[in-house]
UniProtKB/TrEMBL annotation, chain A:
This is Heme-copper oxidase subunit III. The lineage of its organism: Bacteria, Pseudomonadati, Bacteroidota, Chitinophagia, Chitinophagales. One of its GO terms (molecular function) is cytochrome-c oxidase activity. Its main location: membrane. GO terms for biological process: aerobic electron transport chain. GO terms for cellular component: plasma membrane.
Automatic annotation (TrEMBL), chain B:
GO terms for molecular function: cytochrome-c oxidase activity; heme binding; metal ion binding; oxidoreductase activity. It is found in: Cell membrane. SUPFAM superfamilies: Cytochrome c oxidase subunit I-like. This is Cytochrome c oxidase subunit 1. Cytochrome c oxidase is the component of the respiratory chain that catalyzes the reduction of oxygen to water. Subunits 1-3 form the functional core of the enzyme complex. CO I is the catalytic subunit of the enzyme. Electrons originating in cytochrome c are transferred via the copper A center of subunit 2 and heme A of subunit 1 to the bimetallic center formed by heme A3 and copper B. It comes from Flavisolibacter ginsenosidimutans. InterPro entries: Cyt_c_oxase-like_su1_dom (IPR023616), Cyt_c_oxase-like_su1_sf (IPR036927), Cyt_C_Oxase_1 (IPR000883), Cyt_c_oxidase_su1_bac (IPR014241). Residues 19-531 form the Cytochrome oxidase subunit I profile domain. GO terms for biological process: electron transport coupled proton transport; oxidative phosphorylation; respiratory electron transport chain. Keywords: Cell membrane, Copper, Electron transport, Heme, Iron, Membrane, Metal-binding, Oxidoreductase, Respiratory chain, Translocase, Transmembrane, Transmembrane helix, Transport. The lineage of its organism: Bacteria, Pseudomonadati, Bacteroidota, Chitinophagia, Chitinophagales. It is a multi-pass membrane protein.
Length: 182, 548
């Protein structure tokens, strides 16, 4: 039941992100959109953080494994790793925003600014929410509440977390990779 | 009114602390109580939205009227549309779904009772937030679809549209969570033996509707988020003076907006499917066709949105595609109309108020459907767009379809919800007054539209026939208001009156009538294994059980 609920939720979220990505592409040809994207975005730095975020999907997968093997200690470790990787990704996004604002790229400056901050910002918000949920799962694990391997809590949170990572692949492709392909 | 209703429903439910009535209604997670709260909230907003409509019709009663200025009129038609669609039809239909679905599938609760409460309160507070705009400097005034660039700060300087965006965003989140809750409930909590092929058709529609909500609402939520960024942080999405696109808003809005009209009609289709069966005392004709055509409607509804934008200049290819797809979507609906007619054919028909509304729906909705097909012919759309013809069309489908469905449902399930029968004599007065008023108001608007009267304009010149037709249209609106008064009086009297002994007054077929009227907190102590599409009929006719 929980897992079905989460699958439907991410289905809904997927449509939300499709709308944001389409809106981003909608402005591709307007004004200095492409020049701004090329001048201000750094694919290598963000690519590095992308790898870390995708790594967090791997660590979470390990945490799920540990959960099904009732290895509480391992689960704790992999959860902490997941949270750290997600946190580093968010910090990287914060750093990128900081630099962009210093370069005078902001939401009210241009179509690029509006669509870039909205798309990546909503993704960041989802990572942030995911981190809060992961922290709760970690607390529950440390208090021994999730010992029952039949519990769907961990795998339900997993669906969400993997989804957030998968969305980032599309966002990263659209925002950072596409300028090189088109 | 509301207090009395709550108070009387109160007596029927097991209550621990009589003195904590308010707390209990505020904190309830019971699907039946939340369903009632949804319906009461819808009733509250229905009275408000109806009053707004009456004010507009009063303003339009005669030519060159200056009762209301253009500013007030813009706010009124915007608030009327937004209120009726998002805070009357949606909560009422979802409330009924939330109330009935667990009962019909033999479950004790929704899958996620607390999410259910969350959804209701999000929707309700969304409505309150929308109405707070009146106190905050002016209500939204750019129409219910709130086109760019009118929705931008430089054209709509009052904060009204911020409240529109935030109120609908809350309501939108509430609807998505309800949609998810409904789908999970139906897929996971069915009683033993109730396969998808034996699902009551109301529940089938709720299932398709749940998926529609899940897939359609995010588009609106995305658009509203961008609109808020535009208005509060000066983003450029829809602001045409700074490089934004008015067309993007239209696309995002109608990608939600067209599925939305099916979100409003599918639950009503479910209601009719139950009502026609029970009041003809016959099984539905072509069960599989009714269910499958709804799935077809659900899928097709995502491929027709640009027929709202023929006048935007999308080019011939786009227009032809969306014109054709819009004609296509008429087919599955037409199939259902024939199914319902065939269900009545040869049945023992009882023309109760509930059934009267269902039969009237067949006629009114067909008129609305035909004008809709007319709109899918692009040149006709160009001629008639933004005229009163559109107003007539949309009211024929939304009132003649969804609202008649709600009224039909109200009379059919009132004994289930309250344990009391609405007065049939008053019900028939209500029906005839409402149907007469409805047709008087909106049928004439077809002609006004054909004669070129634009919608959303606060007054008009004294052109031949304009005043006559508008005056009659206004008279029809007052007739509908009188009918609603009769309905409110009927409800008031019934709720104060005697309870019925018989828990199954209509000789119904589905499991919700197997439960007590009103159902106890747990719904069922035990549910029989379901072996056909009419489980309660089987129980009552053991030797003539259905086989399907």
């Amino acid at each position: 039941m929980n897992r079905l609920m989460m699958k439907l939720t991410i289905g809904s979220e997927a449509v939300f992100f499709i709308c944001l990505i389409v809106s981003y592409l909608f402005f591709w040809k307007s004004g200095n959109f492409q020049q701004e994207a090329a001048a201000h975005l750094h694919i290598k730095t963000t690519g590095l953080f992308t790898v870390l975020l995708l790594g967090s999907s791997f660590t979470f997968w390990r945490a799920e494994k540990a959960h099904s093997q009732q290895n509480n200690k391992g689960m704790k470790g992999w959860l902490i790793a997941t949270i750290l990787l997600g946190g580093i990704f968010l910090a990287g996004q914060g750093r990128e925003y900081y630099n962009l604002i210093n370069e005078n790229v902001w939401i009210s400056k241009s179509e690029f600014g509006s669509s870039f901050y909205t798309l990546t910002g909503f993704h960041g918000l989802h990572v942030f929410i995911g981190l809060i949920v992961l922290l709760i799962v970690l607390l529950l694990t440390m208090n021994g509440y999730l010992r029952d391997k039949g519990s769907t809590v961990v795998s339900t949170v997993g669906i969400y977390w993997h989804f957030v990572d998968a969305v980032w692949i599309f966002v990263f492709t659209t925002v950072y990779v596409l300028p090189y392909l088109l | 009114m509301k207090a009395i209703l709550l108070d009387n429903i109160e007596h029927d439910l097991p209550v621990a602390h009589k003195d904590r009535v308010l707390l209990r209604w505020l904190s309830t997670v019971d699907h039946k109580e939340l369903g009632i709260l949804y319906l009461l909230a819808a009733l509250l907003f229905f009275i408000i939205g109806g009053t707004e409509a009456l004010l507009m019709r009063t303003q339009l009663a005669v030519a060159n009227n200056h009762l209301l200025g253009p500013e007030a009129y813009n706010q009124l038609f915007t608030m009327h549309g937004v209120t009726m669609i998002f805070f009357v039809m949606m909560p009422a239909l979802l409330g009924l779904t939330v109330y009935l679905t667990p009962l019909m599938i033999g479950a004790n609760e929704m899958a996620f009772p607390r999410v259910n409460a969350f959804s209701f309160w999000m929707t309700f507070f969304g409505g309150l937030l929308l109405y707070f705009s009146f106190a905050a400097g002016g209500a939204p005034n750019a129409g219910w679809f709130n086109y760019a660039p009118l929705n931008q700060s430089q054209y709509s300087t009052s904060p009204g549209i911020n409240y529109y965006a935030m109120g609908l965003l809350l309501g939108g989140i509430g609807s998505v969570t309800t949609g998810i809750n409904i789908v999970v409930t139906i897929l996971k909590l069915r009683v033993k033996g109730m396969t998808l092929k034996r699902l009551p058709l109301f529940v089938w529609m709720a299932l398709v509707n749940g998926f529609l909500i899940i897939a359609a609402l995010p588009s609106l939520n995305a658009a509203l988020s961008m609109l808020l960024l535009d208005r509060l942080l000066d983003a450029h999405f829809f602001n045409t003076t700074s490089g934004g696109s008015a067309l993007l808003w239209q696309h995002l809005f109608w990608m939600f907006g067209h599925p939305e009209v099916y979100i409003l009609i599918l639950p009503a289709f479910g209601i009719y499917s139950e009502v026609f069966q029970v009041f003809s005392q016959k099984k539905i004709f072509g069960y599989a066709f009714v269910a499958a055509s709804s799935v077809a409607i659900g899928l097709l509804s995502f491929g027709v949105w640009a027929h709202h934008m023929f006048a935007a200049g999308l080019g011939n290819t786009m227009n032809s595609f969306f014109g054709a797809s819009s004609m296509l979507i008429g087919i599955p609906t037409g199939i259902k109309i024939f199914n319902w007619i065939a269900t009545m054919y040869g049945g023992r028909i009882r023309l109760t108020t509930s059934m009267l509304f269902a039969v009237a729906f067949l006629i009114e909705f067909t008129i609305g459907g035909l004008t809709g097909i007319a709109f899918s012919i692009v040149p006709i759309d160009w001629q008639l767009t933004d005229s009163y013809y559109v107003v007539a069309h949309l009211h024929y489908v939304i009132l003649g379809g969804s609202l008649f469905g709600l009224f039909s449902a109200l009379f059919y399930w009132f004994p289930k919800i309250s344990g009391r029968m609405l007065n049939e004599k008053l019900g028939k007065w209500f029906f005839w007054l409402f149907v007469a008023g409805f047709n008087l108001t909106f049928f004439l608007q077809h002609f006004l539209g054909l004669m070129g009267m634009p919608r959303r304009v606060y007054t008009y010149q004294n052109i031949p026939y304009y005043t006559l037709l508008n005056l009659l249209s206004t008279a029809g609106a007052y007739l509908m208001a009188a009918a609603v008064m009769v309905l409110l009086y009927n409800i008031y009297k019934t709720v104060k009156g005697e309870k019925i002994k018989n828990k199954d007054p209509w000789n119904a077929f589905t499991l919700e009538w197997y439960a007590d009227s009103p159902p106890c907190q747990k719904n069922f102590e035990n549910v029989p294994v379901v072996t056909s599409r009419r489980p309660f009929y089987d129980l009552k006719n053991l030797e003539k059980r259905d086989v399907d």
